[in-house]
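Example record

Each entry pairs one chain with its bound ligand, adenosine-5'-triphosphate.
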Amino acid sequence: MLCSRILVAYDGSELGNKALKTAIELAKANEKIEMDVLHVVEVPVLYGEFLVAEPNLRETALKYGKETLEQIKDTLDAIPNKTRTFIGEGQPAQTILDHAQANDCDLIVMGSRGLGAFKELFLGSVSHNVAQQSPVPVFIVK
Ligand code: ATP
Ligand code: MG
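Structure tokens for the complex follow.
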């Protein structure tokens, strides 16, 4: 078996959705492969140089985060594999790496780019940092 638990880093972007579809294709190889989908909300939120940790902002960010995961519920329910969804808080790359380690995920699937507006670079900062620091294989979808 290529892997036993896949971690999908999901940000709701087009490539995030493509990463999810790819992970599902991989999981179809064996019903025993489990899948974790993690969406990280950046709290405190960074506005320019200011860190904002206002309680309402956190609640709002988490609410949108939950809605983002809600949108893929049917897609996950449609496969026979065991799936779980998680909301993380903090820096996305570190939170993704920590989740993979704490939950014994042996493959991370993510997009090359995400929601960021700046598309000059081949990799976004999250996929760059995860690919560079992960001890387990990282499948980057483009
Ligand atoms: P940047 O964020 O550096 O401006 P970007 O948004 O284009 O660039 P990334 O954020 O690196 O690119 O996104 C690449 C992939 O990382 C996404 O397709 C998704 O799989 C994952 N990812 C990014 N942000 C998050 C997040 N908040 N939670 C979970 N996964 C994420
Ligand atoms: Mg991004």
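Residues 69 and 85 are 7 Å apart (CA to CA).
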